[in-house]
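Revision sheet: structure tokens.
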Amino acid sequence: MTATSHDRLLTALAVHLHSTSVCTIGQGWRLAFAPFETVTVHHVLSGSGTVQVGNAAPLPYSPGSIIVVPPRQAHVVGDAWPGAREASAEDHCGPFADGLAAFVAGDSPGTLLLCGSIPAPDRRALGLFDLLTEAVVEMPPDEAGQRIFDLMRAEVAAPGLGTAAMTEALMKACLVALLRGQLRRRDHGLLASSLPGDPRLARAALTVLENPGVPHTVASLAEKAGMSRASFADHFARALGGGPMEFVQSVRLRAAARLLQTTDLPLKAVAAAVGYADPSSLSRAFRASHGVDPAILRSLSGQTWPKAPDTRSTRSGEVVTNPSGRQGVQKPGAASSSPATSGTLHPDET
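Predicted:
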């Protein structure tokens, strides 16, 4: 893809990241986090160690790494030494500065993390991180990303009024630098790793994310992936838990939601921009998927996008959903719902 295509895709991904906490993990210690409804992002300001998500193999990190943990998955971060002590994050939480939380385990120099969350995918736009099924540890590929880390270290070392806003902006910039490098890789890097089963699915997903308004069909997306229609539909459904056209509609509705909440474009223009033949088609899709009209969504600008109920259970117990995007706390032995992403499909999209 061209540089212009990268920029359009990065805009479409619309990474909405909230700064939440600073974590200090001493040598010989690990910090255990309960599952969160949001995608969790840790920027490693200093120290080395591993992150382990569920029963997966530990992943090493070092200064300058970005750790991305999918939603609804417990994880442990800290010293790789087998004899390291483990502390529960929720039991070691206190104030940091400017409304941020501080998690502290141990008192000797070790790992310093700046942490944030990417809100649940029903809040404006479907993004790259919403497709993640496994944890990722990556470094921004250029010097610009590492210079952003230097600014984060300076802000955390001398916090004060505005630290939350400053760290939030820096973390988002660092993620964009990471995404830009990943998308320029021939194998599409992070996106390909988000689609288990067949890396060819990444090509089709990128096509939808970049141009949701194009009249996509299962056949056209299968051709983009270089697969037969039947094989593509089967692999896509097994990788993402829904059919290709459910994915297309989800992306379209979230792109429409972003335009409705951030612009004054008339409904006719919004419908045309995201691939619906007329405003009535867009309104029907909104009502079927989320139970509200686009006009109501526009009146809720800046608030949580209403979501339809979903009965799918989490993988690791209940997750407390916080509308602000802040991290939640696990309540063992229960189940939690997650946002529904599908809606009514139109005959011309099959």
